[in-house]
Design a protein that fits this description.
By secondary structure, the protein is α+β, with helices and mostly antiparallel strands. The chain has 2 helices and 10 strands; from the N terminus they run E-E-E-E-E-E-E-E-E-H-H-E.
Length: 148
């Protein structure tokens, strides 16, 4: 399917060198773009729907707090149906926004709520899935810093 021809289809491509998204025009065979390892096309019935990339967050900032992390969080970033989508499956976070910045803010707010509601809850009040998220949060967060 990826080898099929996309006549003048558009795709969003994240340029890690520039740290921004661009919209290159694709003509011909997809395989000519094999060197763009940051782009993963998603194809259904020969139609390019959107492209994904991974963002690494070394800290998470939410109003009034910075979560310092032991290791970066891998966030899958995509653009679908006119919305930017940020997903971190290990944290059960799926955040949306009309702009990249709003989707990232939504992700950070969701992370903060997870910490407040799950990360600090007693185990007996949590489901098995919530306990898994709690373990992931506690393994990932190194320090929490209050900021003004």
């Amino acid at each position: 399917m990826l080898g099929s021809s996309f006549q003048s289809q558009k795709l969003l491509m994240y340029d890690t060198g520039l740290g921004d998204w661009s919209v290159p025009s694709i003509s011909g065979d997809w395989s000519s773009f094999h060197d763009h390892s940051t782009v993963v096309p998603v194809v259904a019935s020969g139609t390019l729907l959107f492209a994904k990339t991974t963002l690494e967050l070394e800290e998470v900032r939410s109003p009034g707090v910075i979560y310092r992390l032991r290791h970066p969080i891998q966030v899958e970033v995509s653009f679908e149906n006119g919305l930017w989508v940020n997903e971190a499956k290990g944290f059960s976070i799926l955040a949306f926004g009309p702009t990249r910045a709003e989707a990232l803010c939504s992700f950070c707010e969701d992370f903060a709520v997870l910490w407040e509601e799950i990360g600090q809850s007693s185990d007996e009040n949590l489901t098995a899935d919530a306990l898994s998220v709690k373990r992931t949060l506690r393994e990932t967060i190194e320090a929490i810093e209050a900021v003004e």
